[in-house]
Design brief:
about 625 residues, 25 helices, mainly alpha, two-stranded antiparallel sheet, globular
């Protein structure tokens, strides 16, 4: 596989170039088929790389060429495939292929069909570059590339000013985090003399825990992860990113791009293990994000907004795991979340497709019989994200909560509270969408239909993965061997050597499982009573809501707060700098220096009248002036 690794990212890049150039000339069948085929071939090569790593147990490290060589600084353009990146390759290309296939049906009537698939291929290329890179600089190239593609895809329908603003918001907020990441890379380069993973981590393993430089590096890297993975305070871009087509939400904002921050921290696990203060910060930010996003999701009526805030909340669980040192648990939840959240977003897209673009759940209902495949697959995804066994989300969320319990009972209680909220708002979504009577228009009801096979087949595959995906991490308490933990051990070995393996009694683990499952079941029962038995429908936007519900529905006015304390002051400062400092000060000085000789010349020119008498008069005045000056001086 060493000779063919470069093809894994190159194939989607080739798809981008071909579809980008031929977007207005190639038929849609060729465009969609080619884009999907490129990602499928990358998936096949990724499977080959995974099998090679599995069989040899050794990472694949390939240097394509020397990129930067200045003095002692050497930055090769190389790829590293180890146990961590091998699984990420499978997720990116596997889920990516299913979303490409789904998009063929979903975007079939869109005028920008070719451009859309070109952007999707470009995104996959940059995401593969991010996880394949053998050093932080190549990771940063992919990091910035997926940010660019996110901007292009969120604002795909840029004719709508709101969608264009959402794309700009995502771009700007990601740049804030990216600055922290970039400065962190500079500090790594200065501290270790290299940005190669193998050299940096080997050197770091010999440093003391709590080292100030390591803490600075990890805090800066965490700032980058906060922006890319939508954590407090840089999370408000992700819900607005639902402005993009639904396949974009599934690919970028559920399965791949938003997990880049978790991948980066998991890759740098030894650095974060040596920085306990940073880990505490990560855990606190993670649990705060879980609760804030979950509480907002409780009252949302837009089906995609519920899933968006759900994504923010689930990313919070991953950061909570990273903060308590459960790197495997965080990555486990990355995998299971990719399955069920991609399924839920694509399922939501199928519902929106069926009801003629409607996204408000208040105008849905009674869709079980009309969309049977969408209903069953979304139900599986909902059970999985709620953490109910034996579906995928149960195993990964249980591992995170178990590690959290051993680290801090307070954080554990808050995590369980978030799990209860998750179950409630997800089953609320299901009940409002699929139960009861249809509440849309007669025209919408007349056109209700199941999605075409190109959309339902990916749903079925993801539903199967959401059902069985958790079995890669069955804990010993349930008779398993946690395959994923053993698989990732070579990547996490340096951290494990410092912290040791967490031991938790089986009885305690059973108790923790019972608590998390119990609160999830109680929440779904309460949601059933409220939205099915009592047929409670959220009130219209024009009606008054209770204070707490209003606060949640308006997202705690966080965007308005940012607008008041960040955007408006910056706009005022920019206006002052432009009108006063730039135009009056700098421009005034430069223009004044140019205009002064011109005005002086115009004034002196008036003295040249051509009248001899005037010249004699001026000469006499000059002689008198000289005599007066001489007398005064004497």
């Amino acid at each position: 596989m060493d000779k063919y690794l470069w093809l894994i990212p190159l194939l989607p890049l080739a798809g981008f170039v071909i579809n980008g150039l031929g977007r207005n000339t190639l038929p849609k069948s060729i465009i969609g088929g080619l884009a999907s085929l490129m990602v499928l071939l990358s998936f096949a090569l990724s499977v080959g790389a995974f099998l090679q790593v599995k069989s040899t147990g050794a990472p694949i490290n390939v240097t394509l060429f020397d990129w930067v060589k200045v003095g002692d600084l050497h930055i090769p353009f190389g790829f590293l495939i180890d146990q961590l990146s091998a699984i990420m390759l499978l997720i990116i290309t596997g889920i990516g292929f299913l979303i490409h296939l789904y998009s063929i049906g979903y975007m079939s009537h869109d005028e920008g069909f070719g451009k859309f698939f070109a952007y999707l291929n470009l995104f996959v290329f940059f995401m593969l570059l991010l996880v394949l890179g053998s050093n932080y600089v190549i990771m940063f190239i992919g990091w910035e590339g997926v940010g660019l593609c996110s901007y292009l895809l969120i604002g795909f329908w840029y004719g709508n000013a709101t969608y264009a603003d959402a794309a700009k918001k995502a771009f700007v907020m990601n740049r804030i985090g990216d600055l922290g990441f970039l400065i962190g890379v500079f500090v790594i380069m200065k501290t270790f003399g290299s940005i190669e993973y193998t050299k940096v981590f080997a050197h770091a393993a010999n440093m003391k825990s709590g080292d100030a430089t390591i803490m600075l590096i990890t805090l800066l890297l965490f700032v980058g992860a906060t922006g890319k993975s939508a954590q407090i305070p840089l999370f408000t871009w992700l819900p607005d990113a639902m402005a993009g087509p639904t396949p974009v939400s599934a690919l970028i904002h559920a399965a791949t791009m938003v997990t880049a921050g978790i991948y980066m921290i998991a890759r740098s696990n030894i650095l974060f293990t040596l920085a306990p203060v940073t880990q505490h910060v990560i855990a606190i930010i993670g649990v705060a994000t879980i609760l804030l996003a979950a509480i907002i999701a409780l009252t949302q009526t837009d089906i995609k907004k519920v899933l968006a805030y759900s994504t923010v909340s689930q990313l919070g669980y991953m950061f909570l795991a990273l903060g308590v040192g459960a790197y495997t648990g965080a990555f486990f939840h990355v995998l299971t979340h990719a399955f069920f959240k991609a399924l839920l977003f694509l399922g939501a897209g199928s519902v929106i497709h069926a009801v003629s673009g409607e996204q408000d759940m208040r105008n849905m209902g009674g869709l079980k019989g009309k969309l049977p495949v969408t209903f069953i697959t979304m139900l599986i995804g909902t059970i999985a994200i709620a953490g109910i066994p034996p579906f995928a989300g149960f195993f990964s969320k249980d591992e995170i909560l178990a590690h959290t319990y051993m680290h801090s009972p307070i954080l554990y209680i808050l995590g369980v509270l978030g799990a209860m909220f998750t179950s409630f708002y997800m089953f609320r979504l299901m009940y409002l969408t699929f139960w009861g009577k249809f509440r849309g228009t007669h025209e919408q009801e007349h056109h209700l239909h199941e999605s075409p096979p190109s959309m339902t087949i990916p749903l079925i595959v993801l539903a199967v993965l959401s059902t069985v995906g958790g079995f890669m991490g069955v804990p010993e308490a349930l008779g398993g061997h946690h395959w994923l933990e053993h698989w990732l051990e070579p990547v996490m070995s340096k951290s494990s050597a410092l912290t040791g393996k967490m031991f938790i009694a089986h009885n305690t683990e059973f108790m923790l499982m019972g608590v998390s499952v119990g609160v999830a079941v109680l929440a779904l029962i309460y949601a059933y009573v409220k939205y099915v038995k009592q047929a409670d429908i959220p009130v219209a936007d024009t009606e008054e809501r209770p204070a707490l519900v209003k606060l949640s529905y308006n997202k705690f006015y966080i965007d308005e707060i940012y607008d008041a304390i960040v955007r408006r002051p910056l706009d005022a400062l920019s206006d002052f700098l432009f009108k006063v400092v730039d135009k009056l000060g700098i421009d005034g000085l430069v223009n004044g220096l140019g205009q002064a000789p011109c005005e002086a010349g115009r004034g002196l020119r008036l003295l040249q009248t051509g009248n001899v008498g005037f010249y004699l008069f001026m000469m006499v005045i000059g002689i008198i002036g000289v005599l007066v000056y001489s007398l005064i001086k004497f």
